[in-house]
Design a protein that fits this description.
Layout (H helix, E strand, L loop, with lengths): L12 H9 L3 E7 L4 E4 L12 E8 L6 E11 L10 E5 L8 E5 L8 E3 L4 E7 L9 E10 L17
Parallel strand pairs: 1-3
Antiparallel strand pairs: 2-9, 3-8, 4-7, 4-9, 5-6, 5-8
Length: about 160
């Protein structure tokens, strides 16, 4: 799935080179019922040089049967080559090895709330473009109980024994 434009250089080679030169920074976070934020470096100013950032979010252990919620409040990233340059990915688990729930770039951020299936999420931010004019992103995250079932108040059930 690599493309060449006659020069012999593969179009996606710049991403591999840029990411190879960017050491990943890992940040561990705890999601509580109260909402907190994650922002790109320097937000709302341009986020700058090549980054490889990973936020590992774990729900507070006091929240039973927890899931993590993530909402994009603001996003403005480069949109060159269909997200091959700057990209945010949200994974359904405690590291970037888990399946991607959502990924986005440019100004095409997901609407609504992204929810995990369990008590953890990972957000990654990879960039390869230097000297950009994009302000980056601001995400909100929190944890809530999954709620296995809901009981209606003031209802009765008749049980008949034969």
């Amino acid at each position: 799935m690599f493309h060449s434009y006659g020069s012999g250089c593969i179009i996606y080679c710049f991403v591999i080179i840029a990411l190879a030169n960017a050491a990943t920074t890992y940040v561990g976070l705890t999601a509580h019922r109260k909402r907190n934020v994650i922002t790109s470096p320097n937000y709302p100013q341009p986020y700058g040089d090549a980054y490889s950032l990973e936020w590992n979010i774990l729900a507070d252990s006091s929240i039973q049967n927890a899931i993590v919620h993530i909402k994009v409040l603001d996003s403005e990233l480069s949109n060159i080559f269909n997200c091959y340059e700057d990209i945010i990915e949200i994974m359904d688990g405690p590291s970037s090895l888990y399946s991607v729930i959502r990924s986005f770039c440019g100004d095409s951020s997901p609407s609504g709330i992204v929810k995990t299936s369990g008590d953890s999420a990972t957000v990654t931010f990879y960039t390869s473009k230097k000297d950009n004019d994009y302000k980056g992103f601001k995400l909100e995250y929190w944890a809530q109980s999954k709620g296995l079932y809901t009981l209606k108040q003031n209802t009765t059930t008749d049980v008949v024994f034969k």
